[in-house]
Amino acid sequence: MNWAYPGPKPTATRALAWLKEHRPAEPNAPVLLWGDARIGNMIFAPGGTPLAVLDWETAVLGQAEEDLAWYLFLDRHHSEGVYVPRLEGFPPPGETIARYAELLGRPMLHMDYYEVLSGFKFTVIMSRIAQAMIEWEWMDADSDFPYNNNCSRLLDLILEGL
């Protein structure tokens, strides 16, 4: 987090403290996680049949909830986070969670935790991107974008609701 951007990070710092305080027990064995589960990393055939999933460079072992939460956070970020409605035809988050649980054969646990974790990770990524833009002089050095952007504002809303 501090490597990504050396300046203030109020939302990321608050989220990290929340994550440390609320870390759940993980009763299920770790599984292979995609790491970047989002609609933009999927290729579909005409008619909607999935053909491939892309971008596996962040694959890790962990709880299945983490991939699902990343998918849901990015869906939320690409709509609510940028102040536009969700795309028509996508099921609401509750239905997506229920279907994932059905396919996995177990309930999805601690989704609030994994949503905050996803928001935290994406907020740190956005901080690093912004710091690079500052270093490349594409953005003023005193810009608040590294810590005040669509992702950090959405994470703030999520934290306020917990």
Q: Total number of β-strand segments? A: 4
Q: Could you spell the SSE succession in H and E letters?
A: HEEEEHHHH
The helix tally amounts to: 5
Give start-end ranges of low-pLDDT stretches: none
What would the average pLDDT be, to the nearest integer? 95
Lateral strand order in the biggest sheet: 1-4
Question: What this model shows, in words?
Answer:
This protein has 162 residues and is mainly alpha-helical. It has a single domain (10-160), classed as Aminoglycoside phosphotransferase (APH), C-terminal lobe (Aminoglycoside 3'-phosphotransferase, Chain: A, domain 2, Alpha-Beta Complex), CATH 3.90.1200. 46% of the residues lie in helices and 8% in strands. The chain contains five helices and four strands; from the N terminus they run αββββαααα. The protein has a two-stranded antiparallel sheet with strand order 1-4. Strands 2-3 form a two-stranded antiparallel ribbon. α1 runs antiparallel to α4 (111-135) and α1 crosses α5 (150-160). The longest helix is centred in the C-terminal third of the chain and has 25 residues, at 111-135. The radius of gyration is 17 Å and the shape is globular. It starts with 9 loop residues before the first helix and ends with a helix. The model has no long low-confidence stretch (mean pLDDT 95).
